[in-house]
Amino acid sequence: MSTLNRRSLLKASLLAGGGFMLQYHLPASAQNAEDGVLVRSDELNAWVKITPDGQITIYSSIPEMGQGIMTTLPMVIAEEMGARWADVEVINAPVEDRFGLQGAGGSRSVPTNLEATRRVGASAREMLIGAAALLMEVDREQLEARDSEVVHSSGERRTFGQLARLAAEQPVPEPEFLTFKDPRAYTIIGKAITGVENLVIATGGSEFGIDVDVPGMRYATYSRCPRVGGTAVSFNAAEIKALPGITDAFILAPDDRPGDAQMAFLKGLPVLRGGVAIVGEDTWSVLDAKAKLKVQWDDASASNDSWAGMIAQAKEIATAGGGEVRKDSEAVDAAFADAANRTAEAFYEYPFVSHICMEPMNCTADYRKGKGDAPDTLEIWLGSQFPAQVREVAHKLTGVEEANVTVHGMRMGGGFGRRAIHDFAAEAIAISHRAGVPVKLTWTRTDDIHNDFMRAGGFASMKGAVGKDGRLAAWDQHYIGVKHKDRGIIGSGMFGNEFPLTAMDNARVRLSMMDIVTPCGAWRAPGSNQCFRGAMLHS
């Protein structure tokens, strides 16, 4: 079991104004599931700042897409500190390496970061109590932090603001000596706390990716081949460029190099799919031009996937039987042969489904060619579940060193796994690089659906038997999912803990996978998203 020393865990420093700043840093080498600190996360930094006037600022480093994480984790810090929530201001942290993995996915933001976040608040509390003990000349055991004050048993008290400067000079507690508040004493967690950005959002003040506006910015749209894998050969360039408000239009070749920073289930995806870019003075002009676009596509190597074809193939597989046996009981056939049992059979289909986030995919990119010895730079604004990963995409497409790529993580109008994939960012980056101006790329809803990484569709051939006692007597299931070559697709296949694998002895379960090209990705609930088992049980 790894241990954390004080230096690697926490660092405190004085602010210019005589306040207190606490940095929590958990290095990747210190992560161990046995620690119960950060599971499946590279690292986390959380910052707490207290100014002499008592203002408490907590930086939120996890991307916000409506799941409320910008409120949740700061609440944990404030609770353990003994802060009064009214004194807290939450600020979205910049996308910087010092904040570690700034990612939200798999519905893991809270469980992954909870223990570490509690340590931040508890450490700040102990340092404030240490400062108060010195200032009041009392034993720290006689002190309690609550309501943004440290209170002595006699009633004497000091505010966090009064203690801020001295607290920054206190030794940072060793993790093993930290204690956490009794949940029965909570004053913030479990209470009705409104989201920290609710008022800003309701009044139109919150800035989403689609709201970004930078000096000199142009607007862009991008058309891909209707069939995955096709590329543009030519288009009516002269006609498009002559339209009002259009400043440029060009073909971008596909970049088939994979992105190493992609999530595990996305590894091997190309950086950029080829297509036609249109750049103009406003969104209306480029979308109007897109409607007039006439492209000659080379789709000789494009996907031939079709839903009708998948249904036919799945039924053939179900009829032929076979597949990978995941569970098999010899008593299954006997239960179905027993005339006293009632049986039911069904073939289920569930379709590919688009995410359709409230905010369509968008990204603003500003590529700047370096002058003289100055390096090329790139600045990017987007809503992303893993914004730092865009640096690698940018480097591959433009050659700009990752250290010279600045990423601004904007609030997302829905993510659901879709914004863990950066194909739309790759398009904006490539367009800005080619056009030489900052561009905002905005997808239409049609683009969103046609170019989505779908919730994977699938099939199941099912048979069940119910005995005289009304109990399930036997279960036969042949699940037919999809895969990309040798790579599994998230949301397709079977986990080892799914019904009936662990919940029923008299069962036979088989698995077959069909190879497809259709892009698939994460859905809003981790797992296989298979509804047919419940439907069969009802039947």
Helix content: 10-25%
* pLDDT < 50 runs, ≥5 residues: 1-10, 25-46
> Which strand order does the major sheet show?
11-14-9-21-18-19-20
Treating each run of at least 4 consecutive H or I residues as one helix, how many helices?
13
Q: What is the CA–CA distance across the termini?
A: 50 Å
Calculate the mean pLDDT score and round it.
Answer: 87
Largest sheet properties: 7 strands, mixed
SS-derived structural category: alpha+beta
Principal-axis shape equals: flat
Q: Please tally the β strands and state the result.
A: 25
DSSP strand content? 25-35%
CA radius of gyration is: 28 Å
Concise structural overview:
It is built from 13 helices and 25 strands.
Describe this structure in words.
The protein has 539 residues and is an alpha+beta fold. Helices cover 24% and strands 26% of the residues. The chain has 13 helices and 25 strands. It has helices at residues 6-9, 69-81, 109-136, 160-167, 198-202, 237-241, 283-291, 307-320, 331-337, 390-398, 423-435, 445-450, 532-538, and strands at 10-14, 20-25, 45-50, 56-60, 88-92, 143-146, 149-152, 157-159, 218-224, 231-235, 246-252, 255-258, 270-272, 275-280, 295-298, 324-327, 342-350, 362-368, 377-382, 405-409, 439-442, 458-466, 472-484, 487-488, 507-515. The strands form 6 sheets. The protein has a 7-stranded mixed beta sheet, sandwiched between helices. Strands 16, 17, 22, 23, 24 and 25 form a 6-stranded mixed beta sheet that branches. It is flat and about 85 Å long. Residues 1-10 and 25-46 have low confidence and may be disordered.
